[in-house]
Write a structure and sequence with these properties.
The complex is a heterodimer of chains A (about 500) and B (about 170). With about 500 residues, chain A is an all-alpha fold. Helices cover about 75% and strands about 0% of the residues of chain A. Chain A has a domain of about 220 residues. Chain A starts with a helix and ends with a helix. By secondary structure, chain B is mainly α. Chain B has a domain of about 120 residues. The longest helix of chain B is centred in the C-terminal third of the chain and has 29 residues. The chains are: A mainly alpha (about 500), B mainly alpha (about 170).
Chain lengths: ~500, ~170
């Protein structure tokens, strides 16, 4: 019901909320506002999602400038879920902030406005039908989130922010070049506003020039791939993730990277249409596998817990890209993995961030005996790390298992072998890091401030989702993923 | 000026608006912003780049060759685009990237970004005829905000580090 109005509302509401945050007079109220806005956004997103799945398979608004199909609707659900969890966690995190990182009114206003501003920009990326507007939204996320990294300006956070700003701006500029080439590749057939609509670009009737489409896809993959943290252009990622305040790291890892990957995937159907089955998927498999390998190498030698999680993001984004390269079965696994990874990685960042406040450091050797020191966040740390490396009852195990099946049925033996080998290395290395942090005697310097009901809810909601989807997948959920996978990978 | 030259059908409002916007933004506002930034900085010109000036000039030769080669590869598919401008736009992108990696001052990285942006803009204008106005305005706005954000970032970096040398930004590794 009112699905097209919901789309408009999803864009207007967070933008309005961002402006509201600037006018609030207490930092407490900013935290309430962002949770409220995210929650309403959740209701709107579910409304659009049901309209897409129950109706014709898509919803449009504002002419055809906004267009949501099962693929974008699924991503919107994940985006909003990550934002609800992270916004709620921001309340827990900032009220426990140490004195040198006090959550003053100035900082609170800046945080609230940028936080909801980036929600607006990411929503714009996901609902836009026009590749140019999608690009504008993507660049806006870079510019808005840059100052979230250096919310507390100091030498390290400024360095991370500057690298992020320059590397991602250049990357996004390349993606723009790709977008232009894609537009040029279909010039013969159409004109005007419709030239940059991906619905038009992907439709079978459009004539697409193969040479230009090839250039376009490479530029887009490298450009948005920078933002998605695909190796070897991931170098900004561990710095930004480790220096940003934890709710921001969770949002970066939980969804910003997926937004960039979403943009790449929008170019896959036209690329397949113009260049045949193997060009785009071959590149995705290559960059995916490379990311998994590079990340596995760095995970072994990490000392900082947040950097460790950042490299896990490179690994998991690589897994998702690999899955998208492996045909319809792989796309199903990749989308399922997107959901699992976003929930799990947010939870892992929450745990590391809160424990980091308890212990006064994110260095892994400083954190020990977390299970005994802080029951709630220790459990969250243990659960999320075990899920992250693919231990059985959790849903990441299921999606990685489905990915293996997809690799077998696609006959991609080499990527599969490399994925398994790297997965083994990550498993052992991360388990070693985890045992040191979770078990043993707590350090003496630890100061525990027990968290209230909100923290309890966040942890068990996320853990519950991961466990539930690992054991049993509801029918509507698998249908939703199937129809989303069909859009980027064709019918099975 | 490029949009006016490219579109043979005379001065439509659209083309005039875009050209004026560009001249205003890139000819007046950006230089003004950058000069203001430089006034805050404790130095006035790049004295010791990572790669010397003579070597930098020599870098231009392979970059030009590469852009001509890439331009030739694209020409068959882009018949309406003048080939000199096509090569030039690709060359501009290379030069911008080179500026970013070879100079020590963070301000030069911003200028390098602007050069890349200009190259892509020229490329877009000569290859794509019918980009919607809304998209072009969005792109201009983004470039404006990007430079603005980089300016604020540089201001903070300068205050914290006492200089704008990028080789000081090397604490985070591995």
């Amino acid at each position: 019901m009112f699905a097209d109005q919901s789309i408009i509302a999803m864009l207007v509401l967070p933008a309005f909320g961002a402006a509201l945050c600037l006018a609030l007079s207490q930092s407490r109220h900013v935290l309430t506002t962002i949770v409220g806005v995210s929650a309403v956004e959740m209701v709107l997103a579910v409304n659009v999602w049901t309209a897409v799945l129950g109706g014709k398979g898509f919803v449009t608004a504002a002419g055809r400038w906004f267009y949501i199909d099962a693929f974008s609707a699924f991503h919107i659900i994940v985006l909003v879920l990550v934002f609800v969890l992270s916004s709620a966690f921001a309340g827990v995190y900032f009220t426990n902030a140490s004195s040198d990182q006090a959550f003053t009114l100035t900082i609170a206003r800046r945080f609230g406005a940028l936080w909801l501003g980036s929600l607006t920009a990411m929503t714009l990326v996901l609902v836009s039908n026009n590749l140019g507007i999608m690009w504008v939204g993507m660049e806006a996320t870079t510019l808005l989130t840059a100052f979230l990294i250096s919310l507390y300006p100091n030498r390290l956070s400024l360095e991370a922010m500057w690298k992020y700003l320059i590397i991602c701006s250049i990357g996004i500029a390349f993606a723009f070049m790709g977008t232009l080439l894609a537009a040029a590749s279909i010039q013969a057939g159409s004109s005007g506003d419709a030239a940059l609509f991906w619905t038009n670009l992907a439709s079978a009737g459009t004539h697409v020039d193969p040479t230009l489409m090839k250039f376009a896809f490479i530029f887009v993959l490298v450009g948005y791939g920078t933002k998605a943290g695909l190796a070897p252009i991931h170098s900004w990622l561990p710095d930004a993730h480790s220096q940003a305040p934890t709710p921001v790291s969770a949002m970066f890892s939980g969804f910003l990277l997926n937004t960039a990957l979403y943009c790449i995937m929008r170019f896959v159907p036209p690329a397949r249409h113009a260049l045949g089955e193997h060009f785009a998927s071959g590149l995705l498999i290559f960059f995916g596998t490379l990311s998994i390998l590079v990340a596995a190498g760095f995970i072994v030698f990490q000392r900082d817990a947040k950097r460790l999680l950042a490299y896990h993001s490179v690994e998991h984004l690589g897994i998702i890209a690999l899955g998208f390269g492996l045909g319809p079965l792989g796309a199903f696994a990749a989308l399922f993995h997107t959901f699992n990874h976003s929930v799990c990685k947010s939870l892992a960042f929450f745990a590391v961030g809160r424990l980091g406040q308890d212990y006064g450091s994110h260095e892994m050797h400083a954190i020990s005996g977390a299970l005994r020191a802080d029951r709630l966040w220790g459990t969250a740390l243990l659960g999320s790390f075990l899920a992250l490396i693919g231990v059985a009852p959790f849903s990441i195990f299921m999606s990685e298992y489905q990915l293996l099946r997809a690799a077998v049925s696609a006959g991609a033996w080499l990527p599969m072998a490399l994925f398994l080998a790297a997965g083994g290395v990550v498993f052992v290395a991360a388990l070693r890091h985890l045992i040191g942090m979770a078990f043993g005697a707590p350090a003496t310097s630890v100061r525990i401030a027990g968290d209230g009901r909100v923290a309890f809810l966040i942890v068990w909601l996320a853990m519950g989702l991961l466990l539930l989807l690992g054991l049993w997948m509801p029918l509507f959920f698998s249908r939703a993923i199937e129809s989303a996978a069909a859009i980027v990978a064709g019918q099975p | 000026m490029v949009p006016i030259i490219m579109h043979g059908d005379g001065l439509t409002t659209r083309v005039t608006l875009l050209s004026l916007g560009n001249i205003l933004l890139k000819g007046i506002i950006f230089p003004w912003l950058l000069l203001r930034l430089r006034a805050h900085a404790p130095y006035h010109r790049e004295v010791e780049p990572f790669i010397g000036f003579t070597t930098s000039t020599l870098f231009g030769i392979p970059a030009l060759a590469l852009s001509v080669w890439l331009g030739l590869r694209m020409t068959p598919a882009l018949k309406q685009a003048p080939s000199v401008m096509l090569d030039l736009s690709i060359f501009l992108i290379f030069v911008g990237l080179f500026l970013i990696v070879s100079r020590r001052k963070a301000l030069m990285q911003v200028i390098g970004y602007l050069v890349v942006e200009n190259g892509i803009f020229v490329f877009g204008v000569i290859t794509v005829i019918g980009t919607p106005l809304l998209v072009e305005l969005g792109v201009l706005l983004d470039a404006f905000v990007a430079i603005f954000v980089m300016g604020i970032a540089l201001y903070h970096i300068n205050r914290e580090f006492g200089s704008m040398d990028v080789d000081q930004l090397s604490a985070l590794r591995g």
